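Practice problem. Given the sequence and the SMILES for pyridoxal-5'-phosphate, write out the predicted structure.
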Amino acid sequence: MTVFDFIREELDEIRELGLFRVFRSIESGKGATVRINGRELINFCSNNYLGLANHPKGQKKAAEMLKKFGTGAGASRLVSGNFKLHEELESKIAKFEKTQASIVFPTGYMANLGTIQALVGEGDAVIVDRLDHASIIDGARLSGAKLLVYSHRDTKQLAKVLERSKAFRRRLIVTDHVFSMDGDIAPIEQLARLAARYHAMLMVDTAHSTGMLEFKLRWPRMAENMIVMGTLSKAIGSLGGFVAGKKGLIDYLRNRARSFIYTTALPPSVAAASIASLDILSKDDKPSKRMWANVKYLKEKLKPLGFNTMGSQSQIVPLFIGDTQLAVRLSAYLFENGIFLSAIRPPTVPKGTSRLRLTVTAMHSKDDIDVLASKLAEAKEKFIG
Ligand SMILES: *Cc1c(COP(=O)(O)O)cnc(C)c1O
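Answer key:
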């Protein structure tokens, strides 16, 4: 008997359920293909949606700043780790999001944690969509506020929750914009209207829409209750999370968000890469246009195959499998056949909803998508029938 026996027991259980996770190690490659175990594969599970992680301008600017400032920021932003580049990035984000100000965290995960924990606490309520990202749920739990959940995209149920929760001091509704594992889109306009009517804050996590999809509100006053959160780690092709909003909100987060205060600032070179990406996106909508054209082409190619794509409305196209072992077998078959498409299993998605979470990017060619469709057809024939 040792104090760590529980680890072996839990690992055995994880393995029995087919949920044990192993790495795929990428040896080289950027863009649409990667090399793993000495073989080239087309990558259909990257969040580098616009190819900006490998844009020459971002690489050049990051390399210059790496030379100029070194590899690390050396301290937290509030001590001696605040570089002009961080502030330039924050003002670029504010401009990009059409808000007064913004604040950058080391990751999107930390942006959600720190922001939710700063905005609500004991005596308050956080109201979340059942399929919100784990970082939102973790932030809600950490805050000490009461966690209330509504069914996925169900604004009628949200209205009931808001009606019943009037006794709480403050209420914060949080939703993914594009849902990370389902690829469908939250009804932002209706959520904003409900937030305004019930005097609640509304935080929208744009991790999978920044630079690709905007939401426009018909009634500007709705935006007064709104907080935009996003990540620089996906379409922006770098690393970091952000919150954009009114100047007061950002000042407040700088003083209250623990995951901002008690952590080292992003390396300046990383901030520089994000700046380059935002500059590219504000001048050039071609990467986004290319991505959406690929989304359309992929969906046409998928239609005859008969997969359930779970109401996808974006570049995230889940292929619903259900059974975890089957999802893993399909993913392994595709891997053997030159397609990198990992299986997403519980607890990342609810039990019984394992899936292949397919993402299509601006970097894919039509040929890539054709190959994918034919391999998926083979895999379906072989394992599902
Ligand atoms: C990826 C993701 C995050 C976390 O962002 P990172 O920068 O990767 O930490 C937050 N919210 C959603 C919806 C995400 O998909």
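Check your answer against the key. The radius of gyration is 21 Å.
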